[in-house]
Amino acid sequence: MGKHASLRRIARFGFTAALCLTTPTLLRAQAPACGFPRFGDLDILDDQGDFTFGNTVHLEGPPGAGTTTLGTFIIINRDSAHANQATYPYSNCSYNNLAVFLRTNLVNQANPALAIPAQDIILNNLPHVLPPGQFAVVGVSVILPPGTVAGTYRGSVTIGDLDAGIDQTATGEIIGSDQIDIQVVVDPQPALGLVNPDSAARLDSLVIRGRAGERASGAVRIANTGNAPLSDVLITATDLQSESSVGITIPAQAITVSTASFSSLAVADTQRVTVSVNIPAGTLGGRYRGSLIVQGQGATPQRIPLVVIVTSSRGIVFENNPVRNANGVARIAFNGDPGTEYQVGIYDMNGLLVFTTIDTVFAGVTATGVAGTAQNPAPGADFAVNVTWPLINGRGEAVASGTYYVVVQSIVNGQRQLARDKLIVIR
User: Fold this and answer.
1) For residue 148, how many C-alpha atoms fall within 13 Å in the half-sphere facing its CB?
2) Which of 59, 61, 63 is nearest to 146 (CA)?
3) What gap in Å lies between CA 251 and CA 271, rounded to an integer?
């Protein structure tokens, strides 16, 4: 049961095969205390106890907690007639000061540079006194520090009597102590996160700024925050919807990622990626929001807002131009600051006013129900407007097919803007 190895380890702590501590102690049992010379044996039984196979206790658990399995082993004082194995005499003595001689670190079998500290091995119900012929069931668990890398770890615990020490028989058999090996399988907990490209700070959103018709980019790092290597990492993005009530979308096809997937990511490692957006020409200025999604095998997918701020505008965007349906409507979108007034005029080819509307850009509403203002826009405020023209004139009559001029007056970034464009109606 590895007793020669145990003896070598114990020798470093002041014990040798030829030296036993014989300091008199108060007897705590009827049998005399074991001293030198002594022929009985302290033994940990093979294959006895919960999760004990051979001379090894097998445990398992996740990092950041104790092992979910609680192992036990059985220790016996063989120094009696009925417990002795008859390989050497017995003296019917009692162990009165049992303790742990040595705990070793639990070393990762794949990477010896990783270890669980020896002090995290917890023994329960180890008796202080063990009379001759008696046994005890000792519980074993291990505290697994947060972030412990997944894998198999092995170490050992050596038990003996601090007063009696250890002996060696004429045949070289070491008696008076024994060793039990401990194996712990740390469960994998794959996890990932998105962090700032230039620091370890968590990223709560990725904001990109650019002009319509241009390519804009931002960076992010994908981090392995779990305790096991990540595989099959994939980064995707959703469509970007205008935060204003204009129904304009920057499609996901316009978004590219420099390294959209990679086969593996080591524990505590990161991968820098660049997210680029081809902002379509004519896109209205404003904020467009979607999601950046990162997935990895076995890890919970992570999602953060992807926001593109378009800093310029063509002025007017038509959802449908020409308008072909006889019963259709024209939708006209343009920028406007929250809480400011806008006016839309539609003229025929002769310059006669056909349709007009005046209104205010929605300025949002606070959590308490108070409307926002131009000076203090509230959450949900619009930065663009969508006006619907049902293809009628001021008298409610359907307009004829032809070309119409749309003229918009609005306030954009605090400045008055006048935008013009043509709209074709086909009946």
Assistant:
1) 28
2) 63
3) 25
pTM: 0.70
- Rounded Cα gap, residues 192 and 190, in angstroms: 7
Tell me which amino acid residue 371 is.
A
pLDDT in tens, 60-104: 999 999 999 899 999 998 876 555 554 556 667 788 899 999 999
CA 281 centroid distance within chain: 38
Task: Yes or no: say if 343 and 408 are a contact pair by the CB < 8 Å rule.
Answer: yes
Rounded Cα gap, residues 361 and 341, in angstroms? 6
What is the CATH code of the structural domain delimited by 192-310?
2.60.40.10
What is the tens place of the pLDDT at every residue in 7-44? Answer: 444 333 333 333 233 333 333 345 666 655 455 678 89
Domains 3-186 and 192-310 share a fold: yes
* Superfamily name and number for 3-186: Immunoglobulins (2.60.40.10)
Please name every residue paired with 116 in a beta bridge, in sequence order, or none if there are none.
Answer: 106
Tell me the C-alpha distance between 25 and 44, whole Å.
24
Omega before 188 within 30 of 0, i.e. cis: no
Does the domain made of 316-425 have the CATH classification 3.20.20.70?
no
